[in-house]
Amino acid sequence: MKISKNHLDIPVWQTYDKNDSTKPTKAIVSNAGDCNVDDLTFKIVGNFGKWQLWLSIYMAMLKMPLAWYQLNIIFMAPPQDYWCAKPESFNMYTEQEWRDICAPKIEEYPCLIFDPDILIIEPTINRALIPLVICPEFVYDTTVFSRTIISDWNLVCSKHWYIHLTQCIMMWGVLLGGIIFGIIADKYGRKTPLMIGITTQCIMSYITSILPSYGLFLICWFILAIASGGIGIISFVLSMEVVGGKWRTLIPIVYHVPFGLGNTVMAVLAYWLRDWRKLEFALASVSSFYMFYWILITESPKWLLATAQTDKALDVLRIAARQNNREKFFEDLKDSLTICKTQVRNDPGFMAFMRSDSMRFCTGLGFYTFSQYLGLIGGNIFLTVAISGVISVTGGLFCLFIVTKVGRKTTVWIFQIVTALCFVFILVIRKDAFTNDWPRLLFAGLGFAGLSGTVPALYLFSGELFPTIGRNSGVAGVTTFARISAMVAPAIVSLDGVMHDLPLVLLAIMSFGQLALLVPLPETKGQPLPDTLAQAEQFNKRQSKPMNAMNDDANTK
After folding, report:
1. Which one, 136, 145, 275, 546, has least CB within 10 Å?
2. Does residue 146 carry a pLDDT above 90?
3. What predicted TM-score, i.e. pTM, was given to this entire model?
4. Cα dihedral 518/521/522/523 (nearest 10)
5. What is d(CA 195, CA 229) in angstroms, rounded to the nearest whole number?
6. For the chain, which domains are there?
7. CA quadruple 530, 534, 537, 539: dihedral positive or negative?
8. What is the per-residue pLDDT across 406-431, written as a single tens digit (0 to 9) for each?
């Protein structure tokens, strides 16, 4: 037995007939690391062409509904004024007069009112002598919003925490969806789980818009959240796996841009409709167009090859080559790709990444907490959310420019430093010292832009650190901590009542602390996507050693 090389420089072990030493009987790849299937794939379809362009657009557009469902709690349960309903016995009083005499002035909202049975007898009696009773029915201000989940299910007073529960349920669902769908996608492919998620998300969105009870709403809301979490993980991984070369840097960044546009679209729809049920129905109707993805997208050929499904991979690559006008390359290289079969590998699972010495990651609490903080700055909720979407797009575009120049690790450093410094400047500048607090608003916008640039860079960084077999699970595991942060965010924001600007102090500390988490991580710019955990762990060593050199080392063994 000896080792030889074919015309594509793929090392192949050849065994020879014992009766004729010049006649090979079979050729097998020595190991998956020696056979650069990834390189062969992009030689066939190219690093970027019409096929990758449309698939990348389809995946990026999925970020818009993800923004709608993960953030539309802003318009489902916005700040809404309310007061206790006037009993019939007080019809001689105007609405304002009733509000003035029924509620104690020590509370912002009248959860407790003076006993109306006593008030009707003696309206001028000393209020200290009248017991407080629970308001039996509320009236809601419909000046801005005609209907919210607050007014539909009376989520006020003792039920006010249900609003936080609604968002918590959403983020728990997104968290579990990313993990569950990530594992399924690594075992059964990208396309089918993605389409199951899209279909479920659409159906659940329609159902939630008509449900009569809050309990049923939460159940369907949770299922919708699971679907959204799965869509986010799979669509990102798929968009990254089908491109090569410099496009592997550009596409995962551009992928995040529509998330900000989703915010703006949602704000426009909410301004137009002013009813959470109508808004949810409208979002479901727009999301239904994504059902056409059943016929528009293909399976990831990289996943098919990584799981030794070469025939199916060739079918996909044939379609891709035809769309990219590279049929000749497909015909010339398909036989080599068939010979260069990869071994079936088991998904190592997320815990294997946790135990690994070099597989580390960083994530933060800043994005979701500061998103809520930014929303409290502006007076017009529609304008504030729309502008935050534009800022998010701007941060993503800056990230696209910087990451191509300096790499992933440095890009995250830059944006995190900008964000942390903005938090410090907001703390230093005294509130109400300037007209409309414009310096604080300026640094708040810059800080949010910094966070918006950090998120896509971290997604790209994480996606390149994890191997193909386990990439969905790995990225899902990383984003798990972001979802937990989203659940904790309301509690962090509420600390402002304990100590003024305490949330900003914590955000600044965490932002600087996250910089330390970046130190042990390797730079992945210019490195091939790893297929196995072992290859991923070699990123540190490979930074100064190209893959070809590694292959040459393997050939000499």
Report:
1. 136
2. yes
3. 0.74
4. -30
5. 13
6. 2-30 (no CATH), 37-79+157-549 (1.20.1250.20), 82-140 (no CATH)
7. negative
8. 878 888 888 888 888 888 888 888 77
